[in-house]
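Try this one yourself first.
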């Protein structure tokens, strides 16, 4: 016997003074209400209602049992509400602050369709790692080397004018090289200020004779993009970012630079939801290409041109 359902029928019938009205209020057929109350009476070994007349009246036993029955029904309803809130608990996720707001909104919408209620907290790579470690968020999209990444985003250089070749060679940026402007900088945005990207590019620049100041970390993505838009400087970025800022993007001939991302989460269920259910939606937020269609190396046709960037 479902004691809660039986008590719900008992409370409804007693409140309306009628099996017909009480059953309708409880959203069940009258016959079901009668059976549930009869089962409850058999369970307790005493009658709850006096059925000797047309009116439905509580017996003394029924009067004593009505308050605890109401408490049980109220507790069951409260528990159902608590379970719904727990099921819909927000999954707080630290995300890269470079993710465009419209794509984050689309990610949250996709999550709701999958009954995953996301709360996103944009932050830089070091801050995301800290938020995960201190458990201020349930999960984080953290920066990792390409080899251990779930999502990979190709990086290249972006300039205000098109590039003359399908790839950029770092040695063409050397100070004093014929046709090259003095101390043309490569600007690293804070999202890429992580050792496996920053140090690799810095060492590659030094190996081909670039001045130390030619590879530098910008205070913010906006600062770096503004410099690339208003000067010959180059922005290290993804194809999506270059498109968003109206810059021309081109991959490096070397070294191969790829942003890697993975999920850090304290609960395996959260990890599974983000890595699998929302995998494609997170990829769109990060600007990661569809691996089934777009390789992460090599330029696209729209980025090829015969003009020298200035």
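Now uncover the answer:
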């Amino acid at each position: 016997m479902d004691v809660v359902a039986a008590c719900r029928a008992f409370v409804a019938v007693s409140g309306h003074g009628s099996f017909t009205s009480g059953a309708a209020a409880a959203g069940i057929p009258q016959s079901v209400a009668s059976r549930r109350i009869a089962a409850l009476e058999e369970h307790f070994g005493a009658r709850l209602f006096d059925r000797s007349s047309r009116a439905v009246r509580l017996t003394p036993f029924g009067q004593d049992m009505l308050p605890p029955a109401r408490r049980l029904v109220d507790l069951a309803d409260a528990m159902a509400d608590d379970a719904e809130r727990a099921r819909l608990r927000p999954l707080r996720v630290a995300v890269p602050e470079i993710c465009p707001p419209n794509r984050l909104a689309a990610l949250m919408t996709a999550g709701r369709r999958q009954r995953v209620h996301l709360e996103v907290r944009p932050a830089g790579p070091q801050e995301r790692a800290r938020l995960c470690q201190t458990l201020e968020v349930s999960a984080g999209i953290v920066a990792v080397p390409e080899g251990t990444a779930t999502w990979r985003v190709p990086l290249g250089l972006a300039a205000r004018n098109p590039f003359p070749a399908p790839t950029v060679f770092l040695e063409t940026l050397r100070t004093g090289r014929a046709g090259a402007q003095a101390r043309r900088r490569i600007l690293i945005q804070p999202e890429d200020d992580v050792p496996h990207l920053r140090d690799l590019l810095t060492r590659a620049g030094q190996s081909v004779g670039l001045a130390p100041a030619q590879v530098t970390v910008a205070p913010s993505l906006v600062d770096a993009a503004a410099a690339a838009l208003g000067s010959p400087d180059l922005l290290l970025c993804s194809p999506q970012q270059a498109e968003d800022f109206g810059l021309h993007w081109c991959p490096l001939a070397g070294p191969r630079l790829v942003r890697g991302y993975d999920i850090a989460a304290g609960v395996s269920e959260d990890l599974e939801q983000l890595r699998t259910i929302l995998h494609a939606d997170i990829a769109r937020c990060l600007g990661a290409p569809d691996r089934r269609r777009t390789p992460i190396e090599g330029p696209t046709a729209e980025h090829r041109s015969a003009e020298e960037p200035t």
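Discussion: Residues 292-310 have pLDDT under 50 and may be disordered. The first helix runs from residue 3 to 16.
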